[in-house]
Write a structure and sequence with these properties.
Blueprint: E1 9-11, H1 14-22, E2 27-30, H2 36-43, E3 51-57, H3 63-70, E4 74-81, H4 87-98, E5 104-107, H5 110-120, H6 122-128, E6 133-136, H7 139-147, E7 154-155, H8 161-185
Parallel strand pairs: 1-2, 3-4, 5-6, 6-7
């Protein structure tokens, strides 16, 4: 990697790249596959011997720093933000989900899935999966859904909001075709 002042900035996805550019930062690499571990693997040998600052959530898993170290880099983890639940909103959202006023639940992080489980309970969540779509922005979030008992979460092809929107549109277009096809047969 090459960056001005000895600092090279690499980002996971287009939203982070845009935010960095708006802040006046020069992004020298954006991941082709939009997750942190893929970014590290794409950078590969370029990490060897480098100090790599990893601004992350207080709840981030250990995969990224491990991969950076495996590639010969020194992982310097920095807690950039803390994930906190907003209890009063959680109760309102949980009630909407439990009463069937929601068609889809979209989580953008494993901690969001954890908050959902804490609000609804794993048993209630598992019962809802046959009548409600559960969508994940990427593999790690989809794995958190599976661990919570959601058998087949929808997963975006890419870790972007546009990709999540597309998978939901495809899902609901398929549902409406099934409903209309069933109606024609009667």
């Amino acid at each position: 990697l090459q960056g001005g002042g000895g600092i090279a900035i690499a980002v996971v996805g287009p939203a982070t790249e845009k935010a960095a550019q708006v802040a006046g930062l020069n992004v020298v690499y954006a991941a082709k596959t939009h997750d942190a571990v893929s970014l590290a693997r794409e950078l590969g040998e370029r990490l060897r011997g480098r100090r790599v600052v990893l601004p992350r959530s207080d709840r981030a898993n250990a995969d990224l720093p491990r991969v950076v170290r495996d590639l010969g880099g020194q992982a310097l983890e920095v807690v950039a933000y803390r994930t906190a639940a907003v209890a009063e909103r959680n109760a309102e959202v949980a009630n909407s989900i439990l009463t069937g006023n929601v068609d889809a639940v979209v989580c953008f992080s494993p901690s969001a899935v954890g908050a959902l489980v804490a609000s609804l309970g794993a048993q209630h969540l598992a019962k809802l999966q046959d009548g409600m779509a559960f969508a994940a922005i990427g593999d790690v979030t989809a794995d958190a859904y599976r661990a919570a008992g959601i058998r087949e979460p929808l997963m975006a092809a890419d870790a972007t909001v546009d990709s999540v929107t597309e998978i939901l549109a495809e899902h609901f277009a398929g549902c409406s075709r099934k409903v209309f096809a069933g109606a024609k047969k009667s």
